[in-house]
Predict the 3D structure of the following.
Amino acid sequence: MTVEQTQFPDKLIDRFGREIDYIRLSVTDRCDFRCVYCMTEDMTFLPRKQILSLEELYQVAKAFTELGVKKIRLTGGEPMVRSDVMTLIEQLGALPGLEELLLTTNGAQLGKFAEPLKQAGVNRINISIDSLDAERFKRISRVGKLDKVLAGIDAANAVGFDRIRLNSVIMKGYNEDEVLPLTDYALQRNIDIAFIEEMPLGEASDHNREDTTCSNEWVKQVIAENYELVESAERTAGPSRYVQVIGHNSRIGFISPVSHNFCADCNRVRVTVEGRLLLCLGNEHSIDLRAILRDGTKTEADLKQAIVDSMAIKPERHYFYDKDHAQPVRLMNMTGG
Ligand code: SAM
Ligand code: SF4
């Protein structure tokens, strides 16, 4: 792709005046787990030529940072199962203008990669863990091994990232009695924990999401019955709200896209591993960046122009569980969590 001298804005602003300075970049749709809320048991993954190469992922990230994006989260699928992903992470860590490089992972490979990730410039890590009981952990992840994830969390903690946050999806009938054990586990390690409401992304194969989704209001109440909580002044532009436990450093987050709608503060877009720029988690509005990247007649300026133009179709909000609106058919591993 050649470079052309064209003037571009130094900020991405959508038609509702929201500044988009955060992208979630999915580096693979594959995973070594098959979590019940995220994937079906017999997943078919994308053929290799359909997914962006590491070089293409870098070009996308570079274009966004030159348009004012300051924060990139790598996600998937499981980012750490993509071969050579560390090469990409090192390149991203050196991108001018990028202030924060974040990773969401299932933690299974952090024993090996925590140190190189820190060296490459990753500032913060989110690690998903839904149970502290090995049998149950296996039931939810279908194949994951709890001891590897626990070792991964310890390794990440030892390396000293700016912040580590656990992500837990609480589901009725699966792990709703683990709200307190998971909270205690995080508090004892001085790390954060966020409870995520299960989202209706694609059809879950072994349960009906409307039966299992636990509202974060309930989760928060369970914690508040055991700990003294104060609202945290810190606000992230997104569906997370935090509280602090008196006497502890950890923050407890509640990511409530289903029971609350924080779309007015939205500052993010997602890029799927097929190079689809997805303007909202709960809608299908998107732009095909891969087509531009692979068209020999197009330049880096065309890529940037497409990104700038996409701001005109970013939806105002999502409509999860609203019967008058179509629900997303994408599973989370395709979307990039
Ligand atoms: N494999 C990595 C991991 O598990 O952290 C990154 C990708 S995963 C799709 C990102 C996050 O999305 C995880 O914390 C996972 O728990 C969450 N997730 C997946 N499907 C979900 C759903 N249907 N509703 C809510 N959260 C979901
Ligand atoms: Fe894999 Fe993460 Fe999805 Fe679990 S939530 S199946 S670890 S991508």
